[in-house]
Amino acid sequence: MAALGWLTPRRRSSTARSVLAGEAAAEAARKTSQQFEEDARARTGAEADAEASPAEPAFPVAGDVGAAAFFDLDNTVMQGAAIFHFGRGLYKRKFFQRRELARFAWQQTWFRIAGVEDPEHMQDVRESALSIVKGHRVAELMSIGEEIYDEYMADRIWPGTRALAQAHLDAGQKVWLVTAAPVETATIIARRLGLTGALGTVAESVDGVYTGKLVGEPLHGPAKAEAVRALASAENLDLSRCAAYSDSHNDIPMLSLVGHPYAINPDTKLRKHARERDWRLRDYRTGRKAARVGIPAAAGVGALAGGTAAAVALHRRRR
């Protein structure tokens, strides 16, 4: 901890949690990626050929195994937020009640609207999510996650971003998801897409049962950068030759680590930041579709829209 001596106690604690979360995510990602590495190698380039745009630059460089690509998940690879789609599936299976769904939807919608990370609010979000899985077996949630992917996530993958990821795979590089979503959910999505693995929030488990605690903190903002840095070190990657993709200004720390940052479907702050630094931009949203995948997408669309409205009304009554 000597290297953190210049920080205030509060900042030191926050930084330490980010490092812990990042290192835990990197360790979990390396373990799980080995389980489906053969699936990634088995994929052919046929799907990518059908989806890739001829306007894409000659990047990545084929055979550059010292490079890799890191993709944010929510609104970058997939329309909407993975945790909401997962929550919809758990609600359908009666893991929690309608009141909890409305509360969870309100918390996440407020975060998207406000665009800031209030410590008390983020703590409330963490506690809500962890209370849902506490006492359940990891294997049970993984099995359910497979079903939820088919029900709510498979048809929400952005073809353009998927093609970018496939280009890295075709070049012989590893491709990782980096997300605040639970690492189990992220791993399922990565495997289904034929990617190398996933860095995600690590929830503590004992004897295969969730304790309701996190290892470090959610993999968000600076913690994502720490996870990428830890994984790059373990994998002997040269970050100056790596690429990273995200839609959110919260991921600027991660994007700034690599030599090839991309803003994908960027929010206003990230778009401005990217233009100032000549980062590449890609926006796969058009017209009404772009509007639809903004705030409503974060609320889960469809079934969660009603829950969000109820949560907003509940919040107003409490004020």
Walk me through what this model shows.
The protein has 319 residues and is α/β, with parallel strands linked by helices. It has a single domain, classed as Rossmann fold. Helix content is 53%, strand content 13%. The protein is built from 15 helices and eight strands. The strands form two sheets. A six-stranded parallel beta sheet has the order 3-2-1-6-7-8, sandwiched between helices. Strands 4-5 form a two-stranded antiparallel ribbon. Helix 1 packs across helix 10 and helix 7 crosses helix 9. The chain is globular and about 45 Å long.
Biggest β-sheet: count, sense, barrel?
6 strands, parallel
Apparent shape: globular
Computed over alpha carbons, the radius of gyration is 19 Å
Mean pLDDT: 75
**CATH topology tier name:** Rossmann fold
Instruction: Label the CATH architecture.
Output: 3-Layer(aba) Sandwich
Uncertain spans, ≥5 residues at pLDDT below 50?
Answer: 1-12, 43-57, 287-319
The proportion of residues in beta strands is 5-15%
Proportion of residues in helical segments: 40-55%
Total domains: 1
| Intertermini distance | 43 Å
Report the CATH superfamily.
Answer: HAD superfamily/HAD-like
Q: Identify the CATH class.
A: Alpha Beta
Overall structural class, as computed from helix and strand content, comes to alpha/beta
Transmembrane segments: 293-314
Family: Belongs to the HAD-like hydrolase superfamily. SerB family.
Keywords: Hydrolase, Magnesium, Membrane, Metal-binding, Transmembrane, Transmembrane helix
Region (Disordered): 1-57
